[in-house]
Amino acid sequence: MASRQVGLCLLCHSGPFPEERFQGNLAPDLSVSVAHSTPAQLRARLVDSNRFNPASIMPAYYRTSGLNRVASKFADQTILSGQEIEDVVAFLVSLQAKPPQ
Q1: How far apart are CA 60 and CA 39, in angstroms?
Q2: I need a labelling partner for 75 at 20 to 30 A (CA). Which of 13, 35, 59, 66 fits?
Q3: DSSP H helix total and E strand total for the chain
């Protein structure tokens, strides 16, 4: 979640990560946006957020077709692996149990 090399979640989102500087403000705070979501809903948004909001700027982290401006060396590759998607979902679910800081 907090990695500046993979996923880049904090580029747009903020969250309960006081140790992380320069959190984004383009998208909802993660602790708020996950509060009433099921793991399946979180997973679906990570896989392809445009299915829920066609105007979303959030990338499809696990889709390889129907994308725009993909460099040839990244064609047919997902941004996150299936395991990374599951790790992010597990982390987001863990935020539901913690009060926002």
Answers
A1: 17
A2: 13
A3: 4, 0
Query: What's the CATH number where 59 sits?
Result: 1.10.760.10
Provide the residue range defining the domain that includes 79: 30-96
In order of 31, 52, 57, 90, 99, the CA distances from 96 in angstroms are 7, 21, 24, 10, 8
**Total domains in the fold of the chain:** 1
- Residue holding tokens 């990374």? 84
Residue 2 lies in a domain: no
Q: Is 27 exposed, middle or buried (0-12, 13-18, 19+ CB in 10 A)?
A: middle
* Contacts (Cβ under 8 Å, ≥6 apart) of 10: 1, 2, 4, 17, 20, 22, 23, 24
Q: Give the model confidence (pLDDT) of 44-68 as tens digits.
A: 999 999 898 999 888 899 988 888 8
